[in-house]
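$ fold --in a.seq
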Amino acid sequence: MNPEEKQFAVIGLGRFGMALCEELSSHGAQVLAIDIHEPSVKKAADITTQAVVADCSDEQTVAELELHDCDMAMVSIGEDVNASILTTLVLKEAGVKTVWVKAKDKHHAKILQKIGADKVIMPEREMGIRIACNMLDSRIFDVLDLGSGLAIAEVIVSHSHLGKEIQQHPCCQSKDLQLLALKRGPDIRKDLPCTTYLETGDILIVAGPEKELIKQLKRL
């Protein structure tokens, strides 16, 4: 499905919610922005398909907005944990296909998972983990936690491996890790021959158990 054909609802228009609206709209998606505060809704009206002042913790309101027709709803309500939980519950009971929710902390996240949130996000924590990984090891350009002990990492090819075949890189020798692609400049190359030579600036995109990733990085 093209982005233009997707319909999203973003409920809660703080900094996180507004950033979502901007990014989704920039890709041509249809975005319904919702908040209980009129000034926030007015700001969103300039960048989204539609923006309304509404309380989505109310069942009748959700029904009137026909949110069940959306492909996905993001509950990005900030500090009001109770409103976030109740809104999530109402959306799920209303038949919204997919509900993602921003959580304030681990306790909030556990409750959201138990009431049926399809995905729970803790932006500050996740960004903190990614930055910490980069601070601890400069060879890791970026890392994404997939849950269940799995991760995807962008590994910068070090000077010691330049000119060597890609199959000689430690991250490509482990049977538990999978090379997804090679980033070379603006290009992303997949299904590369194992004899491809590594060049300056190359980045390997590798997936697998986080412990195995760390183990192989120590070999570099």
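$ fold --in b.seq
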Amino acid sequence: MDATLLHTVSDGVATVVVSHPAKRNAMTAAMWRALPGLLDGLADDPAVRVLVLTGAGPTFCAGADISSLTGDEDPRALAVAAEEALAAFPKPTLAAIRGFCVGGGSQLAAACDLRFAEEGASFGVTPAKLGIVYPASSTRRLASLVGPAWAKYLLFSAELMGAEQALRAGFLNELLPAGQLDKRVAEFTRVLAARSQLTQAAAKEFADGRTDRDGYWEEQAARSDDTAEGVAAFLERRAPRFTWTP
């Protein structure tokens, strides 16, 4: 099968699938280049309220397919551009992880807002095996996610970390029994899709450390009907119908 990024949109949830089964879903240069544009299109789609990133079959992503690079391409730059596009996606993002989540796979997973994994998944950040300096932005994102001690553990050793350890380290939000990942992701994304996009968008920027748009979000909240709708729905014991969109 060709190496490609597949995507679908259903019930407010966009699902992007890293598909390169011959190489455990390793990202080719073309896949790295294609991801930012794909994300831009999904971000602009009003039908999309949540994005799920996953891998085809039993593996999330085993890193970068070095053999796909041309001599003048910088694999780090390609990966960082895709990672930053994913981190900047304006709606909630969730990595649904099975099997290997290594190298560039961990880089993509760390750029998502949330990470759910199935038992048996493995995680690793492996540049120390190749003598590569891990990108500064990626290192800082990893340290912000798991703390400096765990980030150093992963980067210094390049050893794989099991799913239970990844949960303890804070890399994962949830760890599911075998066969339960898809069901739980579907349940949780339905919850996310039903919530206020105003709340989510503001919270994402605040939690990610952005400090230059506090006034913007105060203005958006004042102009939006979401708060009044949320209160009315609570008092009337019905599901709210939020209308604010990015």
